[in-house]
Fold this protein.
Amino acid sequence: MPKPLLTIWYNTRCPVCDAGIVRQNRRLVEAIKAGRIAFRDINAEPAALAGYGVSLDDIRRRLHATDADGKLLVGADVAIAVWLRTPGEGWLAALFGNRAVLPLTRYAYDRFADLLYAWNRRKGRW
């Protein structure tokens, strides 16, 4: 099977993150079957992105993805890349990923991710 066009690394120990990925998995079944997109649990492969200088805690804090060319995407850019590939969600990518709004999208994503990370740590999920 060829290398996926997009491999998303996420944290199954975060119930919010896991629920979001489960939802996307259901919406992207055909792309997953065709090998165009893959979702990988970082807890099963904690050093998977070490070559990029990305730690396990980095991935627990924010989504990370690699594209077919090996480019690393982080945070809101991953969400936008997934929306672009999800049937019926391209409008989200257009709305939140356009040049004018993207800086705000990244800021909002990062603040939410920080809160979610802190909540998960307080709950003892890692």
In short: Residues 101 and 114 are 20 Å apart (CA to CA). The mean pLDDT is 94.
